[in-house]
Every structure is written in C-alpha cells, then in structure tokens.
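Risk mitigation, structural track. In case the binding assays with FNR fail to produce interpretable data, a predicted complex structure has been prepared as a fallback.
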Amino acid sequence: TMGTFSNITALAPMVRVGTLPMRLLALDFGADLVYCEELIDIKMVQCRRVVNEVLQTVDFVAPDERVMFRTCEKEKDRVVFQMGTADPQRALQVGRLVEKDVAAVDVNMGCPKEYSTKGGMGAALLSDPDKIEAILMKLVTGVSVPVTCKIRILPSLQETIQLVQRIEKTGVAAVAVHGRFKEERPRNPVHCDYIQAVAQAVSIPIIANGGSLDLVKSHSDIDEFKKATGTSSVMLARAAMWNASVFSSQGTIPVDKVMEEYLKYAIRYENHAFNTKYCLCQMLRDRVESPLGKQVQAAQTNAEISEAFGLQEFYQQTHKELQARRERLQTSSGP
Ligand code: FNR
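Fallback model:
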C-alpha cells in the first residue's frame, strides 16, 4: 500500500466539486488519485448500495433517493472515499459499506467549516487525539483497503509532529497535510516548513497540500511544491478546480476546453444539474457574469447547460444511448 501514496499527485477532497465527473476528468489529465467530496458518516450509513446498470456505476443512495456517492469501474483503483466522522463505530460502518468500490478511505480532520466541526468532525478532531486514534485504529483493523487522513497543522511544530507520529502508529497508509493553521484562510500563505518537518519525522508518505494559490499554478510548479515541502506526493484542490489540466504533464489547456470535457462526463453520468452548474461556475471564475456565465446560471438541466457550450448534439446522442440501454434492461428483466 505504500506505493499507492508515494510519488503521486492527487485531486484533493472538495465538497460539491469532487463528484464523479470532476474525478474522471482529473484522472484523464493525469492525476494518480482522486478524493471524493467529504461525505458525512450519518448520511452514508443510511445509504444502500445500488448497481446502476444503465450508467454502469455503483450508487450509494439515500432514503430520499438522492445519490450521495456515485462511482464507476474506471476509478475503482484510484478513488479515495473521504468521510466526515467523529464516531469510530459509524466510521467503520461507512468504511465497510464502500470498501469494495474504492481504493482507500480517508478521514477529514482539517475542515474548519461549521457544518463539519459542529458534530466534533473535521478540524474539531485535531484537538481530540484520543478520538483520532480510536477512529483510525477502528478503520485500519476493520476495512480491507488502506486508510488515510487529512489534517491541518497545529499551533506549534512540536505538537504537529507529535500528532502525526501518533497517527502513524495507528497503521494508516499516508497522511495528507494541509499546511495551514485551523484559523487561517485559504489566501494565507502555506507553511511549507511545517509540512517538511512532518515529512522528515515519519516514515509513511506525507501528501503536501495547500499550494494552489501562491505556488502551484501549472504542472511544472508541482515539482517546486514537492521540493519546498520535502515530499514526493502532492494534493491539489483549487488549482485543479479552476483548471483540471494542471495535472497534465503536457501542460495546461484552455479552461473552455476543460469545461467542455467536464460537461461531457456530467452528461454521460447524469450528474445533478445543480452540481454541474456549481462546478462550471468555479471554472468560469471571474467570468460568471459574462454572457456564457449568465447562460450557465440560468440553465436548470444538463440539457440546457449543454446548449450554452454548443454540446446539444453530444447531449442528444448520449441521452438516446442511455435511454435505449434503459429500455433494453427493462425488457430483459421484465415480468
Ligand atoms: C475544500 N477543502 C476540503 N477539504 C477536505 O478535507 N474535505 C472537503 O470536502 C473539502 N472541501 C473543499 C471544497 C472547496 C471548494 C475547496 C476550495 C476546498 C480543502 C481542500 O481540500 C484543500 O485542503 C485546500 O483547498 C488547500 O489546498 P489548495 O486549494 O491550496 O490546493
């Protein structure tokens, strides 16, 4: 399992951004691992696993029929399932639910947002190392895939190193370190020195994170970030959200092309239109008020969004194929 997490570049976990279309796109461009958005344990334990024969996906579906997590064969060995949890037993339940369909499971210990910390999850865990240990040990001994976690740095270097050494002892395969303090905002500079010191203090791979704004703007900057942090692995959030071709060793391509490729996956996998819109708006950045941006914002369905990008034909064709498969499957399994 060591090999899975050393010398890799990963798509970082991002709420709403890290759904299936973005993950497949990042893989196409050369990401080695792709983390899903943080999914909350309480919601996941209510889900049932459904094989979706039409889309050729595996869906984890909530009692209200919402698809909480959709995955497919193509990413099976590369997708890391990130959960939000503050409860070892529930974490294990979620780990067991998804283990057959993912490459690894990860626990979010870095999110400072209220929805995450209020239940003692996310960054709140950082002040409860006993809880961290209990959750990780439960997962490491109870699930069949590697376990990782993602943390922020603590107020002192010594505390940060002690925490990661304690985490290492639980048997996790890697730790992603976002080089910012809990109260720091994404625009604050990242503390590469902390990540470097942590990487030197443990023998498991450390995945460096937090470089998107000031350090990593193109693929070649990834090596610089590795050097600055003394790690062999890097995880990118915003840089990848803005233009997923940052993963490509061939160099970045124009974001309009990236949006098109994203939208094709969204159509093919029947991604929820609100989610498709949200991701495209992140890619549009300061162009959300442009004519294209306004058209995207006004759209209510993937069909309408595809018109904004001139992809009506692709939409029609894909929709027809999926519909035909749906009908075929209904006849073959019919009464
Ligand atoms: C995030 N981040 C985040 N982290 C996490 O562990 N789980 C999550 O679900 C999310 N969600 C999320 C959504 C969005 C839109 C952003 C921008 C960020 C934090 C993210 O993974 C990363 O740690 C930081 O963004 C710093 O890395 P970059 O952006 O400098 O590469």
